[in-house]
Amino acid sequence: METISVQLQQTQKELLIQLELATQKLLETKKGLKGSDLVKDIEFEYRNDAFVLMALDYYTYVSEGRRPRARKVPIESLIGWIRDKGIPTRGRPVSEVAFMIQRSIYKNGIKGKNFELQVVELDTEIISEKLALDLSNFIVDDLVDALEQ
Predict the structure, then answer these.
(1) Alpha-carbon gap, residue 73 to 104, rounded angstroms
(2) Residues 55-59: contacts with CB within 8 Å, 24+ apart?
(3) Are residues 104 and 136 both part of a single domain?
(4) What's the confidence (pLDDT) of residue 142?
(5) Which residue segment(s) compose the domain that 81 sits in?
(6) Domain total of the chain
(7) One domain for residues 1 and 35
(8) Fewest CB within 10 angstroms: 17, 62, 109, 119, which?
(9) Beta-strand runs (E) in the chain
């Protein structure tokens, strides 16, 4: 007979996997995110009695967008992005294209994909359902064991 502590640790491990997969699937429904590094690098950790979403530092910017005249996107980040995505520069230096993109983002902002609240709601629902189901099973198992003795 497993102790409740061992059973809860197993539930925690299962939840980490479920949360990661569900969050990745949700993000892939958003335009432009399918197969992206942002989706691939989603992870969950359990620490301080909470499930913590670990994501790339631009997760919030993608969800919330970027308002016009906000802090400029670093040129180095844009150069890396241009190279990673294979964006054609039409004979211009990559740094010049990155500067034009930076200027456009600064002037116009970027529309957000608005997924943060959906992620929180989905993950909360998964945690609630899994804990309710597993805890009820643990209690029933313990009652059966107690009655058999």
Answers:
(1) 10
(2) none
(3) no
(4) 81
(5) 68-108
(6) 2
(7) yes
(8) 17
(9) 43-47, 50-54, 65-66, 110-111
Does the pTM of the predicted model rise above 0.70?
A: yes
The band of 5, judged by pLDDT with boundaries at 50, 70 and 90, is: confident
The Cα–Cα gap between 100 and 28 comes to 28
| Burial track 62-98 (b if 16+ CB lie within 10 A, e otherwise) | bbeebeeeeeebeeeebbeebeeeeeeeeeeeeeebb
Question: What's the pLDDT tens digit per position in 82-128?
Answer: 999 899 999 999 999 999 999 999 999 999 999 999 999 999 999 99
CA distances from 19 to 50, 59, 128, 135, 145 (A): 13, 16, 12, 18, 31
Residue range 118-146: mean pLDDT, rounded: 91
Residues 78 and 11 in one domain: no
Listed as own residue / partner, the contacts of 69-77 with beta carbons closer than 8 Å and 24 or more positions apart are 69/106, 69/107, 69/109, 70/106, 70/109, 72/102, 72/105, 72/106, 73/101, 73/102, 73/105, 73/106, 75/99, 75/102
